[in-house]
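Priority: medium. Attachment 1 of 2:
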């Protein structure tokens, strides 16, 4: 984590300057971009370790930038927004944000959240691939796939979806309560248990498209189960 490069995509110079000071104090390097197009160019060229991404940007907005980043890979992203409504938070998480902060925010909180996201991104234990029926989850390769006679169908998952699937794959057939999944897999500060339902809905859709529609099921009033068989 030390000396990690933080890309700040933000069009307010005062905010960029403040974040730069606070991140520098903690031993991070920073680079900034005042709009989404420049930010994407920096992302492709410099390969930052984490991105602080404002939602309201000139030209491409933050959601468009986040979608483009997710098409390229899994660089951790913290969204910064002046909108505190739950739907805006959910939209950022659905697209693939790792966490979010609401303006006006305390820069110390932003640095703390960045450290937590980087720990999750770089501190995963190297594990052997896990098999749950036809599903294989490989935390080391950050890969999940469903086996077919013709070969594996790779699942295109967001970071949060992969965390949820990997966490549940460690204990097949166990029922996981929503509150546990929030604590273990969702970004710090994201306390909405209904957010789990949104991620699980996306996971079930992607599993169904890969031919494993009965693998993940909901348990009414409790949570979710990842079964080790079809049907």
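Attachment 2 of 2:
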């Amino acid at each position: 984590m030390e000396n990690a490069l933080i890309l700040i995509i933000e069009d307010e110079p005062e905010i960029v300057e403040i974040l730069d000071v606070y991140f520098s104090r903690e031993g991070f390097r920073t680079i900034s971009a005042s709009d989404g197009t420049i930010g994407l160019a920096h992302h492709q060229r410099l390969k930052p370790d984490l991105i602080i991404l404002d939602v309201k940007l000139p030209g491409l907005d933050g959601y468009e930038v986040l979608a483009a980043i997710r098409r390229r890979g899994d660089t951790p992203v913290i969204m910064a927004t002046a909108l505190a409504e739950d739907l805006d938070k959910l939209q950022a998480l659905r697209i693939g944000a790792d966490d979010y902060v609401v303006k006006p925010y305390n820069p110390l909180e932003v640095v703390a959240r960045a450290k937590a996201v980087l720990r999750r991104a770089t501190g995963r234990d190297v594990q052997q691939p896990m098999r749950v029926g036809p599903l294989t989850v490989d935390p080391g390769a950050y890969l999940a796939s469903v086996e077919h006679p013709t070969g594996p169908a790779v699942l295109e998952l967001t970071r949060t979806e992969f965390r949820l699937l990997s966490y549940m794959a460690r204990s097949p057939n166990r029922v996981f309560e929503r509150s546990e999944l929030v604590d273990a897999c969702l970004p710090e500060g994201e306390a909405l248990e209904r957010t789990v339902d949104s991620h699980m809905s996306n996971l079930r859709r992607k599993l169904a498209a890969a031919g494993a529609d009965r693998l993940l099921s909901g348990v009414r009033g409790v949570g979710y189960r990842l079964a080790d068989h079809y049907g």
